[in-house]
Design a protein that fits this description.
Blueprint: H1 2-18, E1 25-29, E2 34-35, E3 40-41, E4 46-51, E5 57-62, E6 69-73, E7 77-83, E8 89-97, E9 124-125, E10 132-133
Parallel strand pairs: 1-8
Antiparallel strand pairs: 1-3, 2-4, 4-7, 5-8, 6-7, 9-10
Length: about 150
C-alpha cells in the first residue's frame, strides 16, 4: 500500500515537471466588486463571475476578445459566463449613474395651487427656497427659521 502511494506521488510529480498537466491562465479584474471561486483556469474550463450592482446605474462589462454571456441574479448581481481561452483574461466594467437631478421635483404641477406662500398651522415658509417647514431649520435647504 505504501509503495502504491509513493508511485502515485512520483507519477504526479513527473507529470507536473514534464508539462503534461494543462497550463492554467489567470483571471484578473480591473476594479473591485467582482467575485469568483478561483482565479486560475485551464483552457476550455467554464468560468463564472458575479458583480454586485447598484440601482440607477448602467454597467458595461468588457473581457477583451472573449465572448461571454450575461445574466442577472437578484442575490448575486450580474453573472458573467464564458469559456477560458488559452491566455490570461482581465475583466473590466464601465458604469454611469443614470439618476438625474429634477429641479421641479417638489413644485406643484400646473393648475394645482398650494398654500400660496402661507404656512399651514404653526409652520413657516423658508425665505430662501419657499419650502414649508415646522422645525428650526428648512428641511430643503437648511436655512435657519426667521425670527
Amino acid at each position: 500500500m505504501r509503495t502504491t502511494w509513493r508511485l502515485m506521488i512520483l507519477a504526479g510529480v513527473i507529470l507536473m515537471l514534464t508539462g503534461c498537466l494543462p497550463k492554467k491562465y489567470r483571471l484578473s479584474f480591473e476594479s473591485p466588486g467582482f467575485r469568483t471561486v478561483k482565479t486560475l483556469y485551464a483552457p476550455g474550463e467554464a468560468v463564472e463571475v458575479s458583480y454586485r450592482i447598484a440601482t440607477d446605474t448602467d454597467y458595461w462589462f468588457h473581457i477583451g476578445d472573449v465572448e461571454f454571456e450575461q445574466d442577472y441574479d437578484p442575490r448575486r448581481g450580474v453573472i458573467l459566463r464564458f469559456t477560458m481561452p488559452e491566455h490570461d483574461v482581465t475583466i473590466g466594467v464601465d458604469r454611469k449613474n443614470t439618476m438625474t437631478f429634477d429641479p421641479d421635483a417638489h413644485s406643484q404641477p400646473d393648475g394645482i395651487s398650494g398654500t400660496g406662500g402661507v404656512p399651514s398651522g404653526n409652520g413657516w415658509i423658508c425665505p430662501e427656497c419657499g419650502e414649508e417647514n415646522s422645525g428650526k431649520f428648512c428641511s430643503e435647504c437648511g436655512h435657519a427659521r426667521p425670527e
